[in-house]
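Continuing the batch. This is chain 6 of the set; chains 1 through 5 are on the previous pages. Same settings as before, nothing changed between runs. Recording input and output for traceability.
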Amino acid sequence: MTDIDARPVLRTLFVEDNAELREQIGELLAEEGLAVVDCDCAEDALRLYATQRFDLVITDVSLPQMSGIDLARAILRAQPGAWVVFLSGYALGENLSTFGPHVRALLKPFELEQLQALVEAVRASCSLRA
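Output for chain 6:
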């Protein structure tokens, strides 16, 4: 068993309306040892979140109909300690702190090292809760 195999698998809900980005980023997430369930809209994500357990939600900010911001608010109302990562082409700045301690953002395009650091922070947090 390698160190990678010993890491806890994070169940991740990934929401991205751009099919090409959903595939590319989804592959990166899977390479980081995440069990990824993806969808293309916030409404489907909320339905999935209501019926399955996820350790991490990664969402694009700009989605059709319900935004990623509104999706995060709904998830955080249901589970205040949830981990949420926003993917955005816009800096969210100080607004991010209003969501709580487990909400982060990655500015598109992001470096693989940034994604890896976030995944490890979530893993560490989830290990402490276990």
